[in-house]
Amino acid sequence: MGLLRAAGVVYKPVEQLDLGPDSNEIYVEADIKAPRMGGLLAKIFAWILESRIFGALAFYILKRLNRVHKFISNATVEEPPMFVPLHPYVDLDEQEVIEIDSDASPAERVQQAMNCLPLTSENSLDAFKFSCFRRWTIADYSRAYRNGEITPLKVAERFIYAVHESSSRPLSIAFFINYDAEDILRQATESTLRYERGAPISALDGVPIAVKDEIDCSPYPTTGGTKWLHKVRPCTGDACCVARLRSCGAILVGKTNMHELGATPSGINPHYGPPRNPYDPSRISGGSSSGSAAVVCAGLCPAALGVDGGGSVRMPASLSGVVGFKPTFGRIPHSGVLPLNWTVGMVGVLAGTLEDAFIVYAAISGHLPSHEPTTLPPKIHFPLLNSTNPISNIKLAIYGEWFNDCNEEIRLCCSNAVQLLCERYNWKTVEVTIPELEVMRLAHYVTIGSECSTALSSHLENLGRSEFGWDARVVVDIYGAFNSNEYIKAQKLRYRHMQIHNKIFAKADVIVTPTTGMTAYSISKNALKTGELDYVNGGTIIRYQIAGNFLGLPAITVPVGYDKAGLPIGLQFIGKPWSEPTLMHLAFAMQALCITDYRKPKVFYDILGKK
């Protein structure tokens, strides 16, 4: 098809890019050329892509229409490739932080995190009379257990009942792919005995924590949302992050539902059902960590683990009205996580509050196993959230055209939240231009697609595609269409965008954006059996996510309001490498200004409170 070769962009050196507010760099909006497909249409499209006659032509047309040829395949990029987004550790001299002993155990780190939190009341559960909606926190669980008001065993029994009840609703919520009542009760019994002896391991002892089914957690298989992957890759033990939580006494309550292979942002799974949004069960909870977002939103757990390869922690957190935290690439061990996208994927935390995200982060962060790639081990600093001296002189970078590329309700809500934050703390916004964002999205898609295709290649040779859901089948077909030239070009663009973002961070402490470009959309009936491919809505949801994954930057989303339909809206902070403490300070400050307006979901289980 040489005669039809599309002209490629010639990228000018980064040094010549104007990143100021008056830059002549044009904001290129996403222009995704792909119809929404579900049901029979998804099946027909899969057959076309897999056809020896029509497949190659279809892939060529898709790449050309969606500007992959222009921005990636045929582009001229002078920068060297960067295959792994590892950042050398730099001491950022952050405000109001404390350095943590790198040899501290997970339980010791949890205690140190608790010491960084504001003092909370030691009142009993009966004393809490909230004038606004409030989720129970890890500190609430720990306090109630220590005071003898309730036991981990009683909480486990309530949890099991709630999960059973959720599956018998007219619209089943489909929180979990696997949970084992006997194993949950065993863990809860052991935790109850520790409290009776006055010897809990940590504040996490007896606290229910859910795990995305992309992360190994005994005694469960790791399916990745498929019906087959666990058969060819058996789970042989806990992932490192799970083992650390278990060592703190947390009750691992099961494997949460997810989009098959993390393929799209909807979170809909045709094999195990769609994890529905507790704020409106007719809508998506967001993916791919859809089940983890839903269990936290619905009050079943104060926190859950997810994996974020393309916003897959932050997007569902935002759509479901909870906190979503993705640390710097390399901060949390990745061992025991399905190797689907090894240079963009990262274990993250979904939680009801910033404090709970911080506590779980404290437990699972730390030295990496020696076989994982890393630079010099980064120091661990925790934010002193109990400090009486708020951090000062914070500069928030905003790229106006990008920030405003969302629906009007989100734009107004997030703009007002930023204004409120700056007025309250006397922080400043800095207008910037971040060029080539659509190029970065496409380069990320080539990267995550190529890595996933490579990871699955040996299994596809043996199994074929018959056991895939139709939506995942189409996605895997598209992933396999990228070639080595496109992958290398994408890595050159990764290095290029790393330099661009370094220049932005020389002007500001963080980049602030809405978390998603739209709120949760409705689940279509024809998606229930086949899944769905909705690249247009998916592109809108993922719009602000890419830098966190492609460049390995830390990012956090916190709920800041609701649209007219009562659906949650999130605000995102993207930080410099290793700046997790500053991000948590900012999210904590934002949460404090919004928490009195938080609303109770339509589906909510009061696991800890009195019945």
UniProtKB/TrEMBL annotation:
Q: Which GO terms describe its molecular function?
A: catalytic activity
Amidase domain segment(s)? 178-583
Annotated signal sequence is none
The record's listing under InterPro entries reads:
Amidase, Amidase_dom, AS_sf
| Taxonomic superkingdom | Eukaryota
Region annotated Disordered, chain positions: 265-286
Task: Quote the Pfam families the UniProt record gives.
Answer: Amidase
Under what name is this protein listed? Answer: Amidase domain-containing protein
Where does this protein come from, organism-wise?
A: Gossypium darwinii (Darwin's cotton)
